[in-house]
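Next comes this protein:
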Amino acid sequence: MLIPRLHTTEGDGTTSQPRSPQSLWQRSSELLSRFLTYRVAAGLLILLGAFLRLRQWLFARSYWGDELMVLRNIADRGYLQLAEPLDYSQTAPVGWLWLERLMGDLIGFGERSMRFVPLLYGIALLVVIAWLARQVLNAPAALLVLGFAAVNQYLIYYSNEVKQYTSEAFWVTLLLALGVLIIQRGPTWRRILTYWTVALIGVIMTILAIPVTIAVAGVLAVHALWIRRSSPDRWRALGRILVGAPIWGVIVGLLYVGVLRAAQNNPALQEYWSRVYPSQPLTHLRATWGWLRQLTRGLLHIPLDVSYPAVFLLLVFVGLLLCWRRWGLAIAALLVAPWAIGYTASALSMYPMAHRLALFGVPAVLLLLGSAVDQPASWLRESGARALTWLLPYGLAVALLVPQVYTAANLWRHPFDRFQHREQLEYIAAHGRDSDFVVGSGHAEFAAGWYGPLTGVEIDAIMKPSKLSSGTCDPEEFPALLRLHDTAWLILVEPNIETHDRFYRQYLESFGQQVEEIPFAGGLVIRYDLTAPPGGPLSAQPPSGYDCAILTDTP
């Protein structure tokens, strides 16, 4: 039996139809959109990312080896000297070093003050990503990209380390954002001058701004010539785009002569970076393909933190094609530029595009990922193929995001604390005596030299393994010092060479009894009673290959 549809009569005599589910959905969406705009949602995600970074900053974990070597340069040099090649095989942009030295002069060289500049860069990067993502993506896709950036554990970690990696990510992303703006809205004098001003500041703040500036300017130039290919003013437009190039080139030349050339010629850095470079000529196709696979696999782990590599690469590839189709080749080329630069520089053995050194490329690849889910929001309210086209890639992207959210939540409960070098010295200060002999392993020299005065612990010497046959080691120097004390403390710092660690412990066990071993994150503290008979856990093991200890002062 057919049931007649009921109608209601309005006061004016007209009949009204019952509201359909679709109209209710539309009304709900409109009401929600009034309160939850992109700016509000993006602001909440930026606050989330800021809180995650502030959590690590307030925890103020101990400095580790690389930070301490950079800090030693910053604390021991004046501003002009920081423009010279750094000691201890370190390299950093001079502008960033000046900011760090300024923080040290104004506030001090504590963990929070010296990590304040990386923290500001890390939070400012989220703001730039939020703006840039909305220029090229719809709101849901842009928020997804910002969500990835907010919870990425490596963007969080390096926002709280005395290294320049968040500065690099910020300036590279800002240059890309200005390039996108100029392409979308035209190369006005104001925008071009803004771009070259940022480029000039950027090359002082980060070395990576040099190739990225060249790439962005090249894309802008080609784009201007192409869209004006039939116009007589195309060369005038090209001149406008390149107006700041001469001044910028002079600054880059000075930086290269003063700083970059020394880093490129540093044997220790080149040896360390060579592990990332191809081991065979690029013409060896099989070896080159293997190198590319290995390099990409490492980058997907650090700094991208991807749990499902195949899904991630598929979405990035689809996103590149869709970005090209929607915005054109120029913007797609800008987003690819950081990774093209990094891979090319690694292939040519000029820059190691790996691990933390690739952090500057994370925002760009996240934007390509967002492009894969960048479909009209109206498709979500439709059924059939269009809705699936939107929901399927978005669901895959969310699946990639979930593990990163879990990691970020865990970091809120348990902040990074992989190196407890300050705590090692604090333990000795609390349990030792002024008359005790305190010696550090070779890798402990910077931690001991930095935290010793701060904790009130006097580090007597740094011990390094040697052989009597070398002719440079005095076998009586160390025993003569030990005879003056009843207790000795050994500070071991990781990472270290296993045979070296064994030598340190075996050597001290030959003069007294090991009575205490206290583990710390990234190291050990071991106490020896020099009045007791020699012995300890490693006494019965074969010799480590060294038979003499060289003692040096802390830096």
Remarks:
- The CA atoms of residues 317 and 537 lie 55 Å apart.
- Residues 421-552 form one domain.
- The radius of gyration is 29 Å.
